[in-house]
């Protein structure tokens, strides 16, 4: 089988591990920088061209598309789908996940527990936004932020008002979210493959920080999650239409709540924290899916 790992940075840990494992399992695996692809958009012969070559012999694509390049990455992924290539995560699912507001609306509609959240753009009713999430302290974040960037803890009502007013002046879409104090700067990353959580870790924020992202200096360790947390993570990934997902949970006094669903979760932190071959589980999932596929999948978007 010929597998393409679609990534803007094909030399990073996650892409390298997927390529390495696929080759170890006897597949031809190639890195494809989607930013260098160009597309022939026709009904009879849709093509993905890469460095002058037609990628017409790919059997499966494992997308690694970050939020910063999500629009074009999803377009390339959609083109592969038009050509009948199996994509582990579809372009539609990737696009949903990279839109924080849309993803939260989808999760809420499915009844998946989340922190109380408000969204605003230019409303002058700052006090109403703050009250909607239970008052201070609260989290204020940019809808377009990633990896903890654009996420601020407002410890007082006055600080929250200043933040929201400042973001409004930038014409930015913002989310205000209740602060779960009992989480104590920790969250859970559940790695979903298919309909199973295959690995999970607890991330802890560094001293003086509330964001537990490893990119922000947080640490990670293997953690045992509850059956309820497993069910929530799988349900969240399924709601987004993702077969591979990193579901971030936070533990409150009542239940665990979904913070975010990531369509391209990193492998380095979870593999090092848990000692599990997550890349291997992904490639094995592709193998089993391809074995059970019949015909060519064509979808319209």
What do you see in this structure?
- The protein is α+β, with helices and mostly antiparallel strands.
- The chain folds into three domains: 2-91, Rossmann fold, CATH 3.40.50; 97-112 and 182-283, ATP-grasp fold, B domain (D-amino Acid Aminotransferase, Chain A, domain 1); 117-179, 2-Layer Sandwich (Dna Ligase, domain 1).
- The protein has nine helices and 16 strands.
- Strands 14-13-12-15-16 form a five-stranded antiparallel beta sheet, with helices on both faces. A four-stranded parallel beta sheet has the order 2-1-6-7, with helices on both faces.
- A hairpin with a 2-residue loop joins strand 12 (186-193) and strand 13 (196-204).
- Helix 1 (13-24) packs across helix 9 and helix 2 (70-82) packs antiparallel against helix 3 (91-98).
- The longest helix is centred in the C-terminal third of the chain and has 15 residues, at 278-292.
- It is globular and about 60 Å long.
- Residues 295-301 have low confidence and may be disordered.
């Amino acid at each position: 089988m010929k597998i393409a790992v679609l990534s803007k940075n094909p030399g990073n840990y996650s892409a390298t591990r997927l390529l390495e494992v696929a080759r170890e399992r006897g597949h031809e695996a190639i890195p494809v920088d989607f930013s260098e692809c160009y597309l022939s958009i026709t009904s009879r012969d849709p093509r993905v061209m890469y460095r002058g070559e037609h990628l017409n012999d790919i059997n499966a694509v494992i997308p690694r598309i970050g939020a910063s390049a999500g629009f074009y990455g999803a377009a390339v992924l959609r083109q592969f789908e038009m050509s009948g290539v199996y994509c582990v995560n579809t372009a539609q699912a990737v696009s949903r996940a990279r839109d924080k507001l849309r993803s939260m609306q989808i999760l809420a509609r499915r009844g998946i527990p989340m922190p109380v959240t408000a969204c605003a753009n230019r409303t002058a009713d700052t006090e109403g936004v703050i009250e909607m999430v239970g008052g201070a302290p609260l989290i204020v974040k940019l809808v377009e932020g990633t990896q903890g960037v654009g996420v601020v803890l407002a410890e007082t009502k006055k600080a929250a008002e200043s933040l929201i007013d400042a973001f409004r002046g930038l014409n930015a879409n913002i989310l205000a979210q209740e602060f779960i104090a009992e989480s104590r700067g920790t969250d859970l990353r559940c790695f979903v493959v298919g309909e199973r959580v295959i690995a999970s870790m607890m991330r802890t924020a560094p001293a003086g920080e509330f964001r537990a992202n490893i990119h922000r200096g947080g640490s990670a360790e293997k953690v045992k999650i509850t059956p309820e947390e497993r069910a929530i993570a799988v349900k969240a990934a399924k709601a987004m239409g993702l077969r591979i997902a990193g579901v971030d949970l936070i533990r409150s006094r009542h239940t665990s709540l979904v913070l975010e669903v990531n369509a391209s979760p990193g492998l380095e932190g979870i593999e090092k924290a848990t000692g599990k071959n997550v890349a291997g589980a992904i490639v094995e999932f592709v193998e089993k899916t391809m074995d059970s596929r019949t015909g060519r999948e064509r979808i319209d978007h």
